[in-house]
Amino acid sequence: MGAWIATGHAVVSKAAGDPRLSSVRCPDIEAVPEELRPLARVLSRQMLYSDAPDHPRLRALISRAFTPRAVETLRARILEAVDRIITHAASTGRMDIVADLARPLPLTIICDLLDVPQQDRPALASWSEPIAEAIGNSRLDADRNREASQSMTDMLAYFRELLTRYDTPPASHTLRALVTEQAGNTDQDLDELLANCALLLIAGHETTTHFIGNATLALLRHPHAADQLRRRPELMPAAVEELLCYDAPVQLMLRQARHDLDLAGRTVSEGQTVLLVCGAANRDPAVFPDPHVLDFERPGGRHMAFGHGPHFCLGAALARLEGAIVLEALLTRLPGLQLDSTEPQQWQRSLNFRGPTRLDVTFTPPSADHDSGTQAMPTTSSSYGVGSATHVGACPARPGPGGVAGA
């Protein structure tokens, strides 16, 4: 495949911030299969797949909606949404964590940020899924690729209409307000803004959906860890970081060499692709002792679940907050929570994204005369502070062994 695969923590973290490696995903649109070109053209305008000077310019615009203070204002909305979902499911004794909770919650919050009307959200969700699948899967057939391209076309048309909808002005302090403000700037490319609205919608809920699914599955497979969190809720910030590290929602980042360069003692030629395997870096024993053990008191280094360097995930604080609130609710409000052994887990078909697409669980519903474990969540739920989120442990990361292989 003419690519290099980087797996060690030291080399992955270094390469992720190396300006000699480009983040541009599709430098030659004509080389992309015809049915995927409409999607590729949009990806090429998104900040995730851009370099300086475009990337810092776009990031500075969007980051205003993801400051710790801005994210903290969403806490009450997240608590309300989680409480509604858990209360609805509690009486049934079973739920699909993905369909009932992990997918609708992040979509609700990112749509709130984008100021998307309630009635429009199902359409955005239906467009998002084939796009996310195509981004991380090179083996889809032509029909699935066409569906992804058409979904992106439809999504952009929707955002174009939303940004020019004068009968309903945008709510203040929303991404729609920021983007609408910029759209009125004659120096700003509207198509570029639309492409990044699509990025925020897809990345803003797909990754958090997979994080919640992965984290829930890990806790149910390790009941001692779940019990530890119930007994010691103060461990939740460390648990969130460990769960992100243990099974990250994003497993892979792609870079392309701008020119010949040395990477961990290997010569990477100009134009060659470097695959940065974040999932492997997060299991590097040189940084994370006993990496295959789920340990909420681990002394270790910084995980790569949110990337590293200039492209570090803008929504990291929001994902952490949503994850902490969800996990606390599941552990404290659904007694007897366990995997439904009659329903197999189903997984996302993607190299980039990792997470279950179905995760059935059962639990003990409240009896008619005793509301056991289903009390509403207090508004102060979850001590996970957005502005002071810390990584697991306090020990500095030790250099990894390299971990670069040709392929």
TL;DR?
Residues 363-386 are annotated as: Disordered. With 407 residues, the protein is α+β, with helices and mostly antiparallel strands.
Q: Care to describe what's here?
A:
By secondary structure, the protein is of the alpha+beta class. The protein has a single domain (3-406), classed as Cytochrome p450. The protein has 15 helices and twelve strands. The chain has helices at 9-16, 37-43, 54-62, 68-72, 75-90, 97-102, 104-114, 121-135, 142-163, 175-183, 190-221, 223-231, 236-246, 278-281, 316-333, and strands at residues 3-6, 21-22, 94-96, 252-257, 261-263, 266-268, 273-277, 338-339, 346-347, 356-358, 360-362, 404-406. The strands form four sheets. Strands 2-4-7-1-12 form a five-stranded mixed sheet. It has a three-stranded antiparallel sheet with strand order 3-11-8. Strands 5-6 form a two-stranded antiparallel sheet. A hairpin with a 2-residue loop joins strand 5 and strand 6. It is globular, with a radius of gyration of 21 Å. 44% of the residues are buried. The model is unreliable at 368-374 and 387-402 (pLDDT under 50). Belongs to the cytochrome P450 family. This is Cytochrome P450. GO terms for molecular function: heme binding; iron ion binding; monooxygenase activity; oxidoreductase activity, acting on paired donors, with incorporation or reduction of molecular oxygen. Residues 373-385 have a biased composition (Polar residues). Residues 363-386 are annotated as: Disordered.
